[in-house]
Amino acid sequence: MFEGFEEDTFDLGDSRVFARWGGSGPPVVLLHGHPRTSSTWHRVAPLVVDAGFTVVCPDLRGYGRSSGPATTADHAPYSKRAMAGDILGLMDRLGHERFHLVGHDRGSYVALRLALDSPSRVERLVLMDCIPISEHLENLTPEFATEWFHWFFFAQSHVPERVITADPEAWYGADPNSMGAENHAEWLNAVRNPATVHAMLEDYRAGLTVDRADELRDRSSGRRVEPPLLVLQASEENLHADVAKVWGRWATDVRHAVIESGHHSAEEAPEPLSRAIVEFLRA
């Protein structure tokens, strides 16, 4: 995977962030979702490099080979603001003042927070398979709660760790053929680590508490996403919302497109996904 890419782990103070980077041209950061690592982009990253970009793929704080501080009662060390700070620190270390930003799943919430807090750093923003956490919670339906039950299960104390670490491979389930053998091996090594599982759950606990509160403050103050925004939605992903309408309330320049794929489109549909990203970044 990632032939021609460099990789290293960066000490950023209260976190250590593993990242891969390669290519030349305008920088693009690709942020993975749960429970993946940066290797989920192994089919997309080379295509974006070939299109003339520098691509940076970090493991989010607590995921994969990245680590963070001890958890606290308010879950703030695993807030999206803390994770966004990691990305800013990483890009500073790599020498990039401004960059394009792509986030999928939980990575999309990190990307959203970074774009809201530091709009001068982001050229263009791509968010995949998400609407703001606060929007989901304010429009909660039995259907959403049933299909997305893991949000609320992960928020419980201790029990999710006990359930998942008993057999993480069975809990998450993943096909090495669709993921790619090396990507699957990296993912499996991550989810077999109890510390990684705990950190990933803290991401969700922060989502329902501190991250939700941050979003509500954004909305009450009228803060909106300033960089041009492309929202991509996998055809098989049901967000139980009018995605384009929701993002129209959060961004001034927003576009919406569908990728024919399941949830993990970077692995399942890398060519159409890469085309959509590159076409938007070049616009």
From TrEMBL:
Residues 26-266 form the AB hydrolase-1 domain. It holds the Pfam family Abhydrolase_1. Signal peptide: none annotated. Gene3D superfamilies: alpha/beta hydrolase. InterPro entries: AB_hydrolase_1, AB_hydrolase_fold, Carboxylesterase_BioH, Epox_hydrolase-like. GO terms for molecular function: catalytic activity. It comes from the Bacteria. This is Haloacetate dehalogenase. It comes from Diaminobutyricimonas aerilata.
